[in-house]
Design goal:
40% strand, mainly beta
């Protein structure tokens, strides 16, 4: 069964009393109907952003041989080899910068500081730049690269452009942002923002450690010795500081960008900070302190690297619970959650796929641990998705009964549903809005998906309010 499109909405928060009022109106009565299109909720223009469409989708894994050569395509979730699809040969890869599914370019760097673009459709390999020190792929697929002379090269929709102005310094952290902007952190604790047709702007930031940015580059978080400071790269809002009880060690934004997960140096577990409330909300208990974080692109799962030992702790974010551990080597590519919701990680000399909820092995590539892996939503042209990926719905929520959702409301008003889903997410639940499948359907606010009715009902009971079990197509 194909996974329905899922809308994640990032907005400003509603006052809790207002939220509870709307929630009680939604859940009171004999049916799951919420207010229709005449909702009186007002949007804050400073906190309303575009609707982001995210969904579990078919995807593939691409294996880049450690010694160089032709990449190999694998079907998810079983990591079944699909021969003869990829062409072209790459030299040994030092780092994967990213893959833009629309342009079909895979960008990598080599030990010789070359930035290469592999056209997945034709197999052609082009040199984008040489002596490249930093590179990043923006949310719109634009590639940004900075060479040793501080010259910027961008590549957008197959058009390469050398920026006329040099950067003021070489960034040690680089992020691609919306609207063709580059965001970087340069020495002496300064934040740099630049565009091809605008002079760079530089602002001082707090002296700190780990730095991260939202998916769209509209907010940069910097860890200092006493908390986390948030910066708007374009200077539209003043910096905001959130004090923490322990020194932050690693940072990771949620996919929607409204929360940030913080690993602390001396305290086990994670702190969870709300960027809009500007305060610590709660935490996630873990067996020990954490050195690095990696999020599922859809925000269902979080992988944490313990400060001691080489393994991955798995966190189910909707319930904020540590659910498992796998011994694995932690590298820049793996362990990771694939587009179809599978955990892909190294186990000895092999690469395996498993359900992150059960850790039951699904597939294995023997001898694949020494190579570099890319997990992507890109699918080869002319090859039906059904023959490339058997995970056409959220693998973490597919079983004999699933996918199943815990529904808390349905409304004809998508804006109302978005606000409700946002507030549920702020309360620690991974809520989402499912659009109508039929003309008479509404916009459903749901949690999930879950593989079995028992899992869905267990989550529903924890809500402490009425709920319904919803299965698409039923």
């Amino acid at each position: 069964m194909a996974s329905p499109v899922v809308y994640f909405v990032r907005r400003g928060h509603l006052p809790i009393s207002r939220f509870l009022l709307f929630a009680s109106l939604t859940l009171w009565g004999c049916g799951p109907r919420a207010p229709a299109a005449g909702s009186s909720q007002q949007q804050s223009p400073q906190r309303v952003s575009q609707l982001q469409i995210l969904a579990r989708s078919p995807g593939v894994a691409i294996r880049l041989p450690a010694k160089g050569g032709t990449p190999q395509l694998y079907r998810l979730p079983r990591l079944t080899a699909v021969d003869g699809v990829l062409k072209g040969k790459l030299p040994p890869v030092e780092r994967v910068i990213g893959l833009d599914p629309e342009s079909e370019f895979l960008f990598v760097t080599t030990a010789k500081l070359e930035l290469l673009a592999l056209d997945l459709g034709s197999g052609r390999v082009d040199t984008v730049g040489t002596n490249i020190r930093q590179a990043a792929l923006g949310p719109d697929g634009t590639l940004y690269a900075v060479d040793t002379t501080r010259r910027v090269i961008s590549l957008s929709r197959r058009t390469r452009f050398a920026w006329p102005q040099l950067l003021t310094a070489l960034p040690h952290d680089l992020f691609g942002a919306a609207d063709q902007h580059l965001v970087g952190v340069i020495p002496q604790d300064r934040l740099l923002v630049a565009a091809a047709d605008q002079p760079a702007t530089v602002r001082p930031i707090a002296a700190g450690g780990d730095v991260t940015a939202t998916r769209w580059g509209d907010l940069v978080a910097v860890a200092s010795d006493s908390g986390v400071t948030f910066y708007d790269p374009l200077g539209r809002r003043d910096p905001a500081f959130v004090r923490l009880s322990d020194v932050p060690r690693a940072l990771a934004f949620s996919p929607s960008g409204h929360r940030i997960y913080v690993a602390r140096r001396n305290v086990p577990g994670l702190a969870v900070v709300d960027r809009y409330e500007k305060k610590e909300l709660d935490g996630v208990a873990l067996p020990g302190s954490v050195a690095a974080l990696r999020l599922d692109p859809l925000g269902r799962w979080l992988l944490a690297r313990p400060a001691v030992g080489d393994s991955a702790w798995i966190v189910d974010l909707p319930i904020k619970r540590h659910t498992g551990i796998v011994p694995t080597e932690w590298k820049s590519d793996l362990p990771a959650i694939s587009p179809d919701g599978m955990l892909i990680y190294r186990r000895g000399k092999d690469v395996v796929s498993a359900g992150p909820d059960s850790l039951t092995g699904i597939g294995k590539v023997t001898g694949g641990a020494s190579d570099t892996w890319v997990l992507t939503t890109w699918l080869p042209r002319g090859v039906p998705s059904s023959t490339v990926s058997s995970a056409t719905s959220d693998s973490a929520g597919v079983g004999a009964e699933g996918p199943l959702y815990v529904q808390v409301s349905t409304s004809q008003n998508p804006e109302w549903s978005g606000h409700l889903a946002d507030d549920l997410t702020r309360a620690g639940l991974a809520a989402r809005v499912l659009p109508p499948q039929h003309p008479d359907d509404g916009y459903r606010v749901v949690l999930g998906p879950y593989a079995t009715r028992a899992q869905a009902e267990a989550t529903g009971r924890r809500l402490g309010r009425p709920f319904w079990i919803y299965q698409p197509g039923q």
